Amino acid sequence: MAEAEAVSVEGWDFSWLAGRATEERPSWGYQRAMSERLAGASAALDLQTGGGEVLAGAAKLPPVMVATESWPPNVAKATALLHPLGAVVVADADEPPLPFADEAFDLVTSRHPVTVWWEEIARVLRPGGTYFSQQVGPASVFELVEYFLGPQPEHVRRGRHPEDARRAAEAAGLEVVDLRAESLRTEFFDIGAVIYFLRKVVWMVPGFTVAQYGDRLRELDAQIREEGPFVAQTTRFLIEARKG
């Protein structure tokens, strides 16, 4: 517990969890599919790029490649990683409007966006352009959330539902051409992994501290030692929408 409480949780690198936790990956292979689309684009925008790690893994970037990010440490990290590859990183507050002209891009991508401004995505896409995104689905890892917070109301559990994304995309004038969802197995092998995860993903248990939840953490530690990994279900969905 002390080790996980002390380790840095800056950035969006989860390598500290190696050997401590596992998360099953979606079958569609977002990074590979994104890379294929980028290779055929002329101008692309990656929204909420984080540290730029996913975008940097693309085999080929288009002639015009822009990424946005709101968190200053990630802006610096993404700039250092993506500028050598020919991509420009723009610091953006993740509130409309996007700092780009109408019909500026033929492809917009985003992996695990916190918010999705559908009208702005539709505005910056060229006719025939595509939005391609993997997003966190409803009640993701809620087994862990509810262990600490108790049962959550249905409207909270249903948040980020893929059908809501479909309706929002269509309301913005986009045609949804692909929508897939999967529930994936996640395992926490020790209490340190749980603490690190909740310190890093701060919206799961708002205000989480080891001091506040010490008793509950010790109970979970004993449970993991006796029964094995704590298992939760991560939900993800893939959405692809086209501008007519």
UniProtKB/TrEMBL annotation:
<dbReference type="InterPro" id="IPR052939">
    <property type="entry name" value="23S_rRNA_MeTrnsfrase_RlmA"/>
</dbReference>
<dbReference type="InterPro" id="IPR029063">
    <property type="entry name" value="SAM-dependent_MTases_sf"/>
</dbReference>
<dbReference type="GO" id="GO:0008757">
    <property type="term" value="F:S-adenosylmethionine-dependent methyltransferase activity"/>
</dbReference>
<dbReference type="InterPro" id="IPR013216">
    <property type="entry name" value="Methyltransf_11"/>
</dbReference>
<feature type="domain" description="Methyltransferase type 11">
    <location>
        <begin position="45"/>
        <end position="132"/>
    </location>
</feature>
<protein>
    <recommendedName>
        <fullName>Methyltransferase type 11 domain-containing protein</fullName>
    </recommendedName>
</protein>
<dbReference type="Pfam" id="PF08241">
    <property type="entry name" value="Methyltransf_11"/>
</dbReference>
